[in-house]
Design brief:
By secondary structure, the protein is of the alpha/beta class. The chain folds into two domains: about 70 residues, N-terminal domain of TfIIb (Single Sheet); about 170 residues, 3-Layer(aba) Sandwich (Rossmann fold). It is about 25% helix and about 35% strand. It contains seven helices and twelve strands. The chain is globular.
């Protein structure tokens, strides 16, 4: 870790994922995306009318390409242009340009001319929203983007997961491009996980990405559901798809626009 008090060293703040995007797939190589896609398809398997899907907070498109291979027409959106650039490389490499449309936009307000059968917001996307009010804005907007009887599937990281995995976590990753240093800390009082990715430009100059995630417990998520326009929803433990409880580290929340 460079010495921040050294007057010779300069730190410059940059937008999240603006420098991290090319490293993202290596950072997330422990994620079983196939299993996540299988779970979503299991949730909606009895709905034969599902043809198209909107993937918000799509990251580098790992799930979008899998849903396209499963036969769905996919629109994938992320707030970061750099992440969409990485997703475009995958789409082109897999010859899926006819099946996947990519766009840059905010999940709470991006507009489309046609409704969707399914919307997903995975990859901790809900936790990047800073508070319950922002989460409510997304849920309301997602409701408006769905066709009648459409589905919304989100995942939510809990304080328990953050307490277990995010307190004082450090990692150094190096490659021919220089790599990064990562530092993650979790504040139990504010329930905010703050991750800093530090990239060396020169021995005296560093770029810093700050990623802030808000953890939500079961009562928070239930309140979000009750305040949303949806009147059909359930909250599951993502490990065994049983009813969520206080021991769940991550939730699946499945909404339906009945």
């Amino acid at each position: 870790m460079p010495k921040k008090k050294d007057p010779e060293i300069q730190f410059h703040s940059i937008e999240p994922y603006s420098r991290l995007a090319p490293y993202y797939d290596d950072l997330m190589d422990y994620i079983d995306y196939d299993l996540w896609v299988e779970d979503v398809l299991e949730f909606i398997k009895d709905d034969a009318t599902v043809k198209n899907l909107l993937d918000v907070s799509c990251g580098t498109g790992s799930m979008a390409v899998r849903f396209a291979r499963a036969g769905l027409k996919v629109t994938a959106v992320d707030l970061s242009p750099e992440m969409i650039d990485q997703a475009r490389k995958k789409v082109d490499a897999d010859n899926l340009t006819q099946s996947i449309t990519l766009a840059v936009g905010d999940m709470r307000e991006i507009a489309f001319s046609e409704p969707f059968d399914v919307i997903i917001n995975l990859h901790d996307g809900m936790n990047y929203l800073p508070n319950s009010e922002s989460a409510g804005q997304f849920l309301t907007h997602a409701y408006e983007l769905l066709r009648p009887n459409g589905w919304l599937v989100v995942d939510v990281v809990t304080p328990l997961l953050c307490e277990t995995h995010f307190k004082g976590y450090r990692e150094i990753f190096t490659d021919e491009s220089g790599g990064y240093e990562r530092e993650t800390n979790y504040d139990s009082q504010s329930r905010e996980a703050l991750t800093k990715f530090i990239f060396e430009v020169s021995p005296t100059e560093y770029l810093v990405e700050e990623h802030r995630q808000q953890a939500y417990d079961l009562s928070d998520v239930r309140q979000m559901c009750e305040n949303s326009p949806f009147n059909a929803w359930k909250i599951l433990d993502d490990e065994d798809l049983s009813e969520a409880n206080a021991s769940s580290e991550r939730f699946y929340v499945i909404f339906r626009k009945t």
